[in-house]
Amino acid sequence: xxxxxxxxxxxxxxxxxxxxxxxxxxxxxxxxxxxxxxxxxxxxxxxxxxxxxxxxxxxxxxxxxxxxxxxxxxxxxxxxxxxxxxxxxxxxxxxxxxxxxxxxxxxxxxxxxxxxxxxxxxxxxxxxxxxxxxxxxxxxxxxxxxxxxxxxxxxxxxxxxxxxxxxxxxxxxxxxxxxxxxxxxxxxxxxxxxxxxxxxxxxxxxxxxxxxxxxxxxxxxxxxxxxxxxxxxxxxxxxxxxxxxxxxxxxxxxxxxxxxxxxxxxxxxxxxxxxxxxxxxxxxxxxxxxxxxxxxxxxxxxxxxxxxxxxxxxxxxxxxxxxxxxxxxxxxxxxxxxxxxxxxxxxxxxxxxxxxxxxxxxxxxxxxxxxxxxxxxxxxxxxxxxxxxxxxxxxxxxxxxxxxxxxxxxxxxxxxxxxxxxxxxxxxxxxxxxxxxxxxxxxxxxxxxxxxxxxxx
Length: 457
Ligand code: ADP
What we know:
This protein is of the alpha+beta class. The protein contains 13 helices and 13 strands.
């Protein structure tokens, strides 16, 4: 301010001096006025340059850094524009940082597995992420400023909004997936800012399915245990209250033993399943002799066939090609192999045929197959056979000591060994259950001769 005053005074002084030198004593005041006018003109030029500079910064994408308009280089306007330039740069940098933060924040929301919709105080969409698009079919660009109630029109959502209690979530049906499977969404509104709301949705389809499966499983287990338990407790009551002959007592005891063994088998199968689910995958380095497994299954199968009926099955066990070993867990593999053979015998009325084969496939994989000429299975049952407690012929399964868990165990075992269970069946013609193991888990066993040959050479 002082320099400005001195500048003005200097112009007056020089003006009056020039006036005096040119016009004598009369020129003093006109000279001073001329000096003042010149000073003002110079000042106006400075002001107008500053204004043009400011306007250029205003319109620029990089305020404080735009050089399309020159800055005043001297005087108070130069100082002023210089300060403004520094302020603008600072402001611009703060803006850039805030924008980067906002972008990061929106990217984080975009990456969220939950649907996120920001609503203004009127319930209009301000922003939504890609997951919200998948969940509700909202368009992150086209649906901005649309009322959310025009786009999510489910009655349950309308009721939720009308009730105004957002302390808990509401279950909505989302847009069906591409596969056509329904999508169940847990949706909740959260208040924030001034009247704004955040709508969050999460996909709970798998969770609900798991919960339904758990409920079914508990109901099934309870049902399976309740039936034999009722029978046993009925007999106990009879034996306690009625005078029975020795023969009757013996008969009742043998029926009770049957039911107890049924419960025991069920518990063993349940424990096997839970062990399979909990234990680590079978090691790739432990090798199991398939011929030995086959012999073990053959012995058990012969015993079972005589137990099931007086006329025996036509049973055959064939290994085609060289002897093999399979990498995995002996107990698990035996349980899966034996389960298929047992099923073949239990569901094929004697003297039917049950043929068990082990063979190497052309692609290096190996297959354990059990083919029977029993009643066969209708196609609609095939995809469900490995579900826990799924049975086609409930009474046949029970009569022959089935728990409904056999094929579930088999499927689990084969999958844990990297293989698959293949089922083929035709009603009235029989069924073929095959376990196919990957080549990486199969190795040929050298014949004793060739081993000793190798040792000699
Ligand atoms: P279960 O203990 O009842 O035999 P599984 O899980 O082993 O239970 O088998 C499921 C169902 O598949 C059986 O109840 C039966 O109806 C059917 N099934 C299994 N194996 C055969 C087969 N070889 N022939 C016909 N039906 C079969």
